[in-house]
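no rush on this but wanted to send it before i forget. theres a chain ive been looking at and ive put its sequence and its fold in token form underneath. i want to understand how the tokens follow from the sequence so walk me through it. thanks a lot i owe you, the record is right below:
>
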Amino acid sequence: MKSFVLMLGALLLAAATAGSSASRAAELPRVLILGDSISIGYTPFVKAGLKDVAEVIRPAETCSGTTHGVAQLDKWLALGNGKWDVIHFNFGLHDLKRVNAATGAASRNPEDPRQAELPKYETQLTAITDRLKKTGARLIYAATTPVPAAKLNPHRDPEDVVRYNAVAARVMKERGVIVNDLYAFALPRLSEIQRPMNVHFTDAGSQALAAEVVSAIKKALP
């Protein structure tokens, strides 16, 4: 009988602890991360860095460029309970890549058009930002990270990153949105944190970017 009472007590304690943990999780501020595959790399480290501080959610898919973003934004905003305290977002790396004019497929040819030329990028990024502002969340825009001066598939021009970031910075300034300048952070240390001949980052590089993201989000949390 004594062993049964002890076992019952342990079960009740475990249930109470689980309930308390679930309650704490439900009370945490909610953070949505939107972005390309660079954000896929750093999100696990962001989640670890904000453990017990905020609930971090990111769509399972890459958010790709602004054309895809405009079409999918409401779906992403509805994730979980659809209420967000902070949204950390980025679009650009896909917009500036070259694509086949006829098929839209990724292209190595620098003479092919970009997925979204600058005027279209600005229009669509503006629409995305204005929609995000309607959520009432604190917004943080992440500057697009540098691309190496190498033959990439698809082709990307390093100077396009500068041009697209400049347009994004202006859009954000006009709307009072914080900019997390991951471009400036990554540029002087690319040889240390970026994969060779690649737009993506090593695990250590993703962890370094995550530290910048965590810092920006913590400052924006309620």
